[in-house]
Hints:
Blueprint: H1 8-22, H2 52-78, E1 92-100, E2 114-121, E3 126-133, E4 139-144, H3 146-151, E5 154-174, E6 179-196, E7 204-212, H4 241-267, H5 273-279, H6 284-291, H7 299-308, E8 316-318, E9 321-329, E10 344-351, E11 357-365, E12 377-380, H8 385-426, H9 432-440, H10 443-455, H11 460-464, H12 469-480, H13 499-528, H14 530-543, H15 551-557, E13 587-588, E14 591-592, H16 609-639, H17 641-644, H18 677-691, H19 708-716, H20 718-723
Parallel strand pairs: 1-7
Antiparallel strand pairs: 1-4, 2-3, 2-5, 5-6, 8-9, 9-10, 10-11, 11-12, 13-14
Amino acid sequence: MPSQPFDFDEMFRIQAECEEKLKGTHPTRTTRHRIKSINHLNDHGSKLISNPLAIIAESLLRTYEKARDSVQSVIAKLFPRHEQVIRNDINSSIIGRLTFAELKDYHVPIHHMHIELWAKTRWWQWIKLSQTDTNINGHFELSFDMSVIHRNRIAKTIRFEIYHTDTHHFNEHPTENKAIYRAERLNRLFKTIKINKGDLTGMSYNMGTIPLYYWEYRRDTKLPRVVIKDHDLDAPQKYPKERMDAITTQFIPIELITRKHLSKIKKGKPLTIEEIQSDYPENLTVAMEKVKPGITRSDQWFGDRMINGMYASTLDKDPENPDLYWLYYHWSSYDHRPDYAFNDISMKFSINDEGYFIPQSITLKGPTSPDGSPNSKITLTPQDGQKWEAAKRVARVSGGILTEMDKHFTETHLNTEQYAIAAYRNIRRNPVGAILFPHLRNVVLINHTADKILVKKGGYINRATALTKTGIKKRVSDVLGTLDWKNWSPMKPLSDKHRYALAANLYYEVLESYIHEFFEAHEEDIIAEWHEIYSFSNDLVEHSVEPFLCGHLQKAHKVNPGQGEAAQPEDWYTKENRMDLNLKRPLVSDEFKALSHITTTNVLNKNHQEECDRELTALKKACAYVIFNATFGHYWANSKQYDDIGEIRYSSLGIRLGTDPIGVFGPEQDDSISPDLTISTQMMWWSNMLSKTGYGYIMKNEQGDINPLLIHKLKEKEAAFAELGVDIYTIQSETNI
Length: 737
């Protein structure tokens, strides 16, 4: 039977009531357990401290660490470091050069790294001998007064300390019209090299070339990824303690539910999907179904969630019918398991007089049953009863894995990582770092964890969906090859009910205004330190993947960006929220690259106003793109996962062909179609972990490094965002989960 029609006003009223009811609902944390690290999370049993002896040992370790930190704090207060450089006559110096240590980059200088020279007397008093920054070629010279060392009873070794910049604070500077927030660079100790005092005998001491293992690019993949050999020992960043406290408080109850289910399954005890579902906190679709059964299976709900839910799909005009809109999921060319439905899916939508999106047809290409042909193709409409209902489920599942792999993992996580590596390697003095770093922080850490437990062989995607390890690798590379900052703009709203697109544009307008004012306040320094932007741009382009366009679009647009070609897309093709196909791709070492140069100019001359304006505009656009994807883009794809993939029967990330001859067209209650019991509880683990373990919000500014101007501008638009269903206090400042 066709699904029951529902009134849109009633549907949204029920949705709003359920969302309000579900706010803040979460099981109470069990205090005897804790999670050591986000990197120790695992959907088949995270590294919890649960053994009584282990709990005692862990408690003793924390007591020791607390005592150690207290002693170090007391020593620091008793023997403070005074920043004033002690000198009379400059009669000696230490020279050298900093470069990257990785073999391919050994010749690449590390510019503008801050260096300090410290000594300690035999009475533990600190003396600062000198300080400087490396120049653009990585060279440094620390000039100091040798007599200071001899007359102050200096201990045996001198400390050569290298500092890096990865955070800023903002200081308010009131003006006649408005407050301006100026960025203050904060340096953190990166490496210490001890120099024997006895070696400092002449007028100059040469340390030679000092290679630093600093934000290295991996060489085992073409993807722009950072080297992390051991998450807990050599990662270039570390989570703040507050981040770990938050995930421990929020996620331990979910972890214990999953453990209970896995234990039952292992012991062969009775367990059903319904029992698994009921043990976890209610999600949006479950709550709405309790109010009005069938409402989340309706055509109205399906159309709205595909456009405004987690999926937030980009629609094209239907090439065959300009009155309809087209959404296409292509999967068949990616390596996948034969026991899963992994259809190419074509969906057609209309927009009614009120501006709502209504599904008109769903076409499934590929096997839909255990004995189905790879070439089978079926088109279903709302008149097709049970098959139509099943087709919507297949489309929801396909949209779920596409959102997780394409939009969440690749477009926000991996896309942000490539900008993070290039930024941290190159930006130190330039004020642009102050608006980028708060949104690039920790993404490489969570991506390293995702590699292990989500996408690599044995990871959840590999176990719970049709995609194999080979298929995952190719899909991620292809999607990354479709992303570029240049000429990018948010999704164009197709009606006044297109809430995602309206909210995305509103947020992007806030970013543009914020970035423009920041550049106005810091323009002179941005231009003065333009070499850092030039180096940032070079690293981005050189390490980006090859551009990609699927075969269908290459044929339709007569263009192959992988060969550097540019073309004008067909009129039906939506240009917003996509790579600009009109651009020729940069060529690096005989390989075309997906990312465009932000600048190819090493030095900006502020007297050449036209050139400065052009280069600064490009940098503004790149900053807006990066911050948008790291914040709002990630927030939308991530925070709504429990809404849309938090009910096992409604939508998982994989749907099996089943055992019945009708395959995926069977009812929701067919367990042979749904995920098995293990995958079902792990699916709930994942959707809770992704959507319910938040930390690092723009409006809360937990780390104190977000420009108050951005907070102020979002606050001004709070009501407008609320009308679109966006609570600005839930938008994360960084991609950390």
